[in-house]
Each structure stands twice: as structure tokens, then as C-alpha cells.
Design a protein that fits this description.
3 helices; 62 residues
Amino acid sequence: MTTFTCAVGFFVLTCQGPHPVPNAARFCQTASLVRYSAQDTAETRRQLRVANAKYRAVCGDR
């Protein structure tokens, strides 16, 4: 039982990175505002406004 506990503890310590990036920071590095198209429907534009509002709430005006 002791050997199993030590192995699990060792596994956890080796799998952690030195400085994990929070999900919000990772999102802001990869996402961007979405632009409308002339062909977009009213529903698509509404969905884009919601998505862009979420982006601005998390990332600000980058």
C-alpha cells in the first residue's frame, strides 16, 4: 500500500508544469473578436454579439 501511495505522489509531481496558464489567459491568447458578414442572418449576428461580449468580459479591449 505504501509503494502505491509513493508512486501516485511521484506521478502527480512530475505531471505539473512550473507555471500553468489559467484558462482565461489561454483563451485570450487564442481567441479574437468575430466580425459580421453581410450574408449573416439576424440570429447569427445576435450570436456573434453574445460571443464578442463574452470575449470583452474576459479579455477586455485587446
